[in-house]
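Example 3.
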Amino acid sequence: MPAKRTIPTLDDVALAAGVSTATVSRCLNAPERVVKATRDRVLTVVQTLGYTPNFGARAMAARRTSTIGAIIPTMNNAIFARGLQAFQEQLHKRGYTLLVSSTSYRPELEEEQIRALIARGADGLLLIGYERDPAIYDYLATRDVPALIAWANERDRPEPAIGFDNRACMRALAQTVWDYGHRQIGVISATTKGNDRALRRVEGIRDTFLDRGLPPQNLSVVETPYSIKNGGAAFASLMATATPPTVVMCGNDVLAVGAIGRAQAMNLNIPEDVSITGFDDIELARIVMPPLTTVRVPHQKMGRRSADALIDMVETRTATRFAALKAKVKIRASLGKIATVADGKTAQD
Amino acid sequence: MPAKRTIPTLDDVALAAGVSTATVSRCLNAPERVVKATRDRVLTVVQTLGYTPNFGARAMAARRTSTIGAIIPTMNNAIFARGLQAFQEQLHKRGYTLLVSSTSYRPELEEEQIRALIARGADGLLLIGYERDPAIYDYLATRDVPALIAWANERDRPEPAIGFDNRACMRALAQTVWDYGHRQIGVISATTKGNDRALRRVEGIRDTFLDRGLPPQNLSVVETPYSIKNGGAAFASLMATATPPTVVMCGNDVLAVGAIGRAQAMNLNIPEDVSITGFDDIELARIVMPPLTTVRVPHQKMGRRSADALIDMVETRTATRFAALKAKVKIRASLGKIATVADGKTAQD
DNA sequence: TTGTAGGCGTTATCAC
DNA sequence: GTGATAACGCCTACAA
């Protein structure tokens, strides 16, 4: 009647199976190098004893962990959730485990978290966006830990990255907005400090409108941390000006949903009184009334590809550059047309 | 010009600081046991070398990791996100790290994940709900890993749990629905197999209505996996019957949002044509039109308390029982009143 | 095909 | 207050 109060180790298994620890280890890590008879015997013992290898010991001896770390700004909303889920599923398929941690959009926390993940033995790292202290890139290099950037992809940066071109995507959406006749533009951006994706999106908006000759004073930008509530407040402040915008372009869907909610509270009709756009195309974008015009980001594909790319980097010790993923403008009811005098039309549509 | 291609270890630090590895270790783990002069010297070296302790080695030597594992059904929606975020923040405050993994609502995956987290050295585990193979509880006991149950709390179960009473909460909501005059009830539940929270919620609904004498045939329940889309489909099937319900009570807000969307697509007015209720009070519940009547779960408090409780269990090796948290019915526009003949009123309100 | 033995980087128990 | 030194559990040459 063995009161198994102790955790079985490789030794216990070896002893019970009448083989050496080396053989047990092989049965687990390279089964083909053990003859079937012994392998079966060993695996049975593993089962009955309920043996599980100790991760720390294994990591130390093998000097790798089959673990990938990811550091994302937040798990609080759907923006990263879908991509992360796909990332983790693909990792799992290829025999890797995911370690997540989040910075709560405080970039200064990222370095500590990178260290923590590396200390935990992460074989590779997924990071969001390009912008971070160069010392971090140095650190990654000295530790020889491959890192892949996601949610962004800029043509002129050398780091391996799987994502879309935030600036070009927003430029495309802004073009649609321009084509719809809007000439008085409000922008609600996430805080751009330490967030290159947010910055690029604002730049994309500027590109389009200023290139087409919009007077700079017709384009007003406010920054605020991502949240539904902040989106609402920023919207109110934009609408409170002498010449309120006919369209408010938001840095992401969460801000846009906040703006829509506030607009309704202010008894403004969308898109008759004001149009609103987002970015990401999270589930909320279709639920909200009216449905949100936004940019559809290929979250799943991005997650899956990132997993494959990062594992390749880890296993082959090489780094490649990747082409940007496509993200398409998705027009829904929250964006309406403005009839310009030149068009000879009568009113908003 | 040292080309530091190697990762610094405790030995390197000890060597450079001219002390023993034991002293370096103490500087890091019990600074008060080292005289200030040496401590400063050592810590400087740690800085300049960029030393980070190796997690695996540390875990092996110290036989603990300051790591807590959590296994949740999904990270895909907001249901667990808020509580988990609070959980992780509180863990962080107390010097612990969180390891998450998700089962995608497939209970049979839980055991493997528990093993994986324990193999990774989790000092304690957070699990959702009570229902699981008894063998799992045995395993946890032999491995001597404390586990805390969250998102549920049943008076007559001995396991330590921090959460609310799903059955009682849903009973309270059902009471409100009853008071509003509804006598033809539709229920959309998550799959109850392997999900005690979902089962208890349905039971809560039955409790209220059957106790008050509602004929069983006036209460129809459909089960479907959690998702907005499935919620919509289930709603359509409930409404397609000969005597469609005047209210559809959903097992959570995600299903309810799906139901609302489908109702709109079917040109049904809420609550005039049919009322809809949810459970959880996630952000979506306030965004959706009309806003959703639901049960407000204290996610943050639950997360925070769970962290404290679990750390206490780990550090003191004791287990206590906890009282259920309160969750309140939150009435919003998606629930309307039915005028009964007895009330002498005229119509729906 | 299988066994032996050294080493991975820490912590903790002792002496000093 | 500080320094040796023995675990900790596993992997992997290398040898048999």
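The mean pLDDT of chain B is 91. Chain B has 13 helices and eleven strands.
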